[in-house]
Design brief:
single chain, alpha/beta, Rossmann fold, Dihydrodipicolinate Reductase, domain 2, Alpha-Beta Plaits, 14 helices, 17 strands
Amino acid sequence: MEEKKIKIGLIGLGTVGSGVYKTLEAFKNIEVVKIAVKNKNKKRNIPGLDENIVTDNAYEVVNDPEIEIVCELVGGVEPAFDLIKTALKNGKHIVTANKELLAKRGEEIFNIAEENNRVILYEAAIAGGIPIIMPIKTILAGNKINKVEAILNGTTNYILTKMDMQGAQYQDVLKEAQELGYAETDPTGDVEGFDAAYKITTLATLAFKKRISFENVYREGITKVRAEDMKAANDLGYKIKLIASAKTDEKGRADVRVHPMLISKDSTLAHIDYVTNAVSLTGHPIGHITLSGPGAGEFPTASSVVGDILAIAAEIGTTDYLLPMMRCRHDNPAECINILDTENKYYLSLNAKNNKGVIGNIGSICAENNISVESIVQKNVSQNNTADITVITEICLEKDMQNAVKAFEKSEFINNVNSLIRVQV
């Protein structure tokens, strides 16, 4: 007796969609019967692709009664939200890599899925080819995870790695990354931290078993990081990375954010370079683990998408309630901490007049704002009699640090506040 083929519809045949299609060809129990694309006339590097199953109307996929699993790989909120909603109401299971949709409207689509007794899987939406969602939902389900630190964007990690290795400025490395195809022509989504913020929103929701609202995630990109900061960080025993982090305090409140951070060279994340991604989880009883690997690309991301497709396909026809452990159980919203109320350690770079009393003035401003200083280093006295001063603080309140920065900007001793970057604790 011939095994029943599970019929699949793809929405999107770009880099990831092409990888998914090519990978699925090896599985005889899966048949891709319809593919929606933006431009039917575009030449595609897919040998043997049947042009008869390609359409430029995505609603033909979600309304096809034959299709049991819809794989959405176009990204963005619309039309993806309406397509997924329509597919769910038509009784189809969903596999998606859409981190923005999950971050902004995840609660709605998971509710629609449950109302229609359908499953949404999204392993590829967080860290490309790194398996993280299913492990959290299954093998790590017995853990109370209280901290996540991750590198979730390959473009920014590539740029920061090249800045570190070459001693180059941000704009020069960005241009090189664009020429090599690692950065988009408009890199805003990556370099301003949006991509990583979408991902940490969903990852924190999973880790803490409470819904994190994207609006409560603090976001800061890498555009202000300088080559001078890279060198200073190295001299102090750190590397600078764009870190997506989430942790809970003793009251159960969530602190979720994305920003550049000085990471100790002793940390695993300090050695995650170029386009590699990594996720570090801390909890009980597991302790501390890090998973790393390719965070993007045709086949790494396809690996996660196809894994989700196969997980659903294996369940179809065997039960009336598929994959209960993978379903959304995050109805309660998390109480989130405003960034101004968080406590952090800081790296501060100042350009100051090379006069007597400068170090004392810096110390006074810090003291007036409840900030203790761990170290102050002065170097590079220039011909115009100014000096670069690097300050590392002890742990203090963000609001106090911001007030201190305002005071530095008004100080007669300080010419410029070059950089303010948080330090891993």
